[in-house]
C-alpha cells in the first residue's frame, strides 16, 4: 500500500494563519467529542444486527438456494426488510416476536445515528446540516488527511486573502461541493460528512494562484517485507491536477456510499473558477499584483508573464534599468508571492540600497512605504546590517519616530557587535525623548546605554548639555551592491 501526506508548501507565510489553525482545532475538538458516540452507536447496531441475522439464518439459507447472487448486492437493511415482509410480519412464533422487537430497536438506532442527525443527506436537504457536516469526520484517518491538506494549502491563501476572504471561500467551496454531490445523487439517504469538499475548493484556488509552488509530501510504501518512508516535492501544477484526475476516476467507479468523489470535484472546480475569475478580472491581491504599499505610480512597471520563468523576466528588466529602485521592490514582491524568499530578500536589499544612496531613483517610493512593505511581508529581519541601520536613519530624517526606534532597536539586537550599535541606542533615546514623547522609556534607554557603553562619548555629551534631535550620520558600511545571484526557480 502506498500513502502520501502533504507536509507543507515551499511558499512561506507572512502572518499567522489564525483561521486555518482555528478550523483545524474546531474539527479536531468535534471529532474528539463525537468519536466515542459514533463508536458506541456502531457497536450497539452491530450487536443488534448479529442477533437479527442469527434468527434469520433458516430464511437466509433458503434465499441463497433460490437466488445465489442475491447477497452480493443486497444490504443488511434490504435483507431485514425482506425477512420482515415474508416471514416475521404476521408470525406468532416467539423468535419472530423477539425479532420484531429487535428490528424496531435496530431501525430506531439506525435512523438516529449522529451522522444521520447532523450529516448532509441529499434527499432530506437542510441548509444547517450542509454547514454542520463540514465539521464532522467518520474516523481519525479521515480527519487527519483532511487537516493535513487544509494546513498545507490553507495557510498561503489566508495569508493572501485575509481570514475573512479565506473563510468565505472555504464555506462556499463546501456548499458547492455538497451541491454537486446532491445533483448527482438527489435521492440518496446516505449522510455525507467531512471537510473534504471545502478543502478541495482551497486546493483549486491554490492551483491557480500558486501553480509553480512546490509542495512537500511524506510517503509511506508498505509491503510485507519492505516499508520505505521518505519525502518528495512536486509543483502544484503536477500534483493537484493528478489528485483531481483520481477523483474523476473514483466518481466513475464509485457508488452512493463511501467516498463522496463528486463533492471533491464540485469543491475543486469551484475553487479553480473563483481564482481564475479573480485573475482574469484583476480582483484580489494575487500572485501577479504590484506591491500593495508601493502601488502608487506603478503603472510603469512591466507585466509578469506566467508562462515565462520569473527569474528570467526579473533579470531582463533589472539589467535594462539597473538604477530603478521601484523595479527591485516590484520583483521582490513577485518572488515573495511565489515563495522564493531568498530571491525576494536579495531584491529588496538591492532596491533599498539604491534608494537610500540615490533618492532620485525612488520614482515616488518613500522609505516609509518601503518600511510598511517589508513589515507586512515579515522581511525586516532579512535586511542587511547596512540597510537596516540606514532605513532607520531615513525614517528618522523623514519625521517617522516610533518606526525608526523599532528599527534602531532591531539593529542593536541583531548586531551586538555592529559598528553603529552605540549610535543606534543613542538615537533611540533621542527619538523616545524628543519625538515619541515617552520619557520613561527614554530614561530606560539611557540607563541601558550607560551600562553597555560606560565610556560613551554620547552619554558624556548628554550629561554636559541638554540634547536636541540630531541627524544621523551616514553609515560607514560599504555602499557597493553585491552582484545579483538568483536561486533557480
Task: Outline the structure in words.
- The chain is mostly helical and 489 residues long.
- Helices cover 63% and strands 5% of the residues.
- Strands 1-2-3 form a three-stranded antiparallel β-sheet.
- Helix 7 packs across helix 8 (196-209), helix 9 (236-253) packs antiparallel against helix 10 (261-281) and helix 16 packs antiparallel against helix 17 (421-436).
- Residues 285-299 and 469-489 have low confidence and may be disordered.
Write a compact overview of the structure shown.
The protein is mainly alpha-helical and 489 residues long.
Q: Can you give keywords for this protein?
A:
mainly alpha; disordered C terminus; 2 domains; 489 residues; elongated; Rhomboid-like fold
Q: Give the CATH topology of the largest domain.
A: Rhomboid-like fold
The strand count comes to 3
How confident is the prediction overall: mean pLDDT?
Answer: 81
At CATH's second level, what is the architecture of the largest domain?
Up-down Bundle
Q: Count the helices. How many?
A: 19
Strand order of the largest sheet: 1-2-3
Strand content: under 5%
Q: Helix coverage percent of residues?
A: 55-70%
Number of domains: 2
Mind telling me the CATH superfamily name of the largest domain?
Answer: Rhomboid-like
- SSE string, helix = H, strand = E? EHHHHHHHHEEHHHHHHHHHHH
Supply the CATH class of the largest domain: Mainly Alpha
Separation of the first and last Cα atoms:
33 Å
Unreliable runs, pLDDT <50, ≥5 residues?
Answer: 285-299, 469-489
Q: Any idea what the shape is?
A: elongated
Amino acid at each position: 500500500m502506498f500513502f502520501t501526506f502533504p507536509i507543507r508548501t515551499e511558499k512561506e507565510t507572512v502572518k499567522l494563519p489564525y483561521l486555518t489553525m482555528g478550523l483545524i482545532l474546531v474539527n479536531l475538538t468535534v471529532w474528539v467529542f463525537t468519536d466515542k458516540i459514533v463508536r458506541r452507536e456502531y457497536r450497539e447496531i452491530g450487536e443488534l444486527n448479529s442477533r437479527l441475522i442469527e434468527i434469520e439464518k433458516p430464511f437466509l439459507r433458503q434465499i441463497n438456494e433460490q437466488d445465489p447472487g442475491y447477497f452480493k448486492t443486497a444490504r443488511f437493511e434490504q435483507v431485514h426488510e425482506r425477512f420482515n415482509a415474508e416471514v416475521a410480519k404476521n408470525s406468532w412464533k416467539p423468535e419472530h416476536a423477539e425479532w420484531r422487537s429487535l428490528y424496531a430497536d435496530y431501525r430506531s438506532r439506525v435512523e438516529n445515528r449522529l451522522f444521520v442527525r447532523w450529516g448532509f443527506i441529499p434527499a432530506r436537504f437542510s441548509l444547517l446540516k450542509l454547514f454542520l457536516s463540514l465539521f464532522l469526520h467518520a474516523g481519525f484517518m479521515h480527519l487527519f488527511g483532511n487537516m493535513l491538506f487544509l494546513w498545507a494549502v490553507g495557510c498561503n491563501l489566508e495569508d493572501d486573502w485575509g481570514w475573512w476572504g479565506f473563510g468565505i471561500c472555504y464555506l462556499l467551496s463546501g456548499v458547492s461541493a455538497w451541491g454537486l454531490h446532491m445533483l448527482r445523487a438527489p435521492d440518496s439517504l446516505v449522510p455525507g460528512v467531512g471537510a473534504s469538499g471545502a478543502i478541495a475548493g482551497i486546493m483549486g484556488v491554490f492551483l491557480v494562484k500558486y501553480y509553480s509552488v512546490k509542495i512537500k509530501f511524506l510517503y509511506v510504501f508498505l509491503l510485507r517485507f519492505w516499508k520505505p518512508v521518505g519525502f518528495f516535492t512536486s509543483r502544484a501544477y503536477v500534483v493537484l491536477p493528478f489528485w483531481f484526475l483520481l477523483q474523476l476516476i473514483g466518481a466513475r467507479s464509485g457508488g452512493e456510499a463511501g467516498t463522496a468523489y463528486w463533492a471533491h470535484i464540485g469543491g475543486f472546480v469551484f475553487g479553480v473558477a473563483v481564482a481564475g475569475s479573480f485573475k482574469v478580472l484583476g480582483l484580489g491581491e494575487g500572485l501577479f499584483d504590484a506591491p500593495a504599499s508601493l502601488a502608487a505610480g506603478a503603472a510603469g512597471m512591466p507585466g509578469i508573464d506566467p508562462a515565462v520563468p520569473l527569474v528570467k523576466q526579473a533579470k531582463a528588466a533589472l539589467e535594462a534599468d539597473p538604477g530603478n529602485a521601484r523595479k527591485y521592490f516590484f520583483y521582490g514582491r513577485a518572488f515573495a508571492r511565489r515563495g522564493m524568499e531568498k530571491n525576494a530578500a536579495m531584491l529588496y536589499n538591492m532596491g533599498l540600497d539604491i534608494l537610500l544612496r540615490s533618492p532620485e531613483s525612488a520614482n515616488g517610493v518613500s522609505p516609509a512605504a518601503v518600511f510598511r512593505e517589508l513589515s507586512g511581508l515579515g522581511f525586516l529581519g532579512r535586511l542587511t546590517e547596512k540597510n537596516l541601520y540606514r532605513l532607520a536613519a531615513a525614517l528618522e530624517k523623514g519625521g517617522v519616530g516610533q518606526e525608526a526606534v523599532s528599527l534602531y532597536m532591531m539593529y542593536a539586537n541583531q548586531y551586538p557587535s555592529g559598528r553603529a550599535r552605540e549610535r543606534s541606542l543613542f538615537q533611540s533615546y533621542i527619538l523616545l525623548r524628543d519625538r515619541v514623547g515617552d520619557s520613561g522609556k527614554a530614561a530606560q534607554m539611557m540607563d541601558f546605554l550607560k551600562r553597555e557603553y560606560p565610556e560613551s562619548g554620547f552619554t558624556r555629551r548628554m550629561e554636559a548639555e541638554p540634547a536636541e534631535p540630531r541627524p544621523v550620520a551616514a553609515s560607514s558600511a560599504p555602499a557597493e551592491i553585491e552582484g545579483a545571484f538568483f536561486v533557480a526557480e
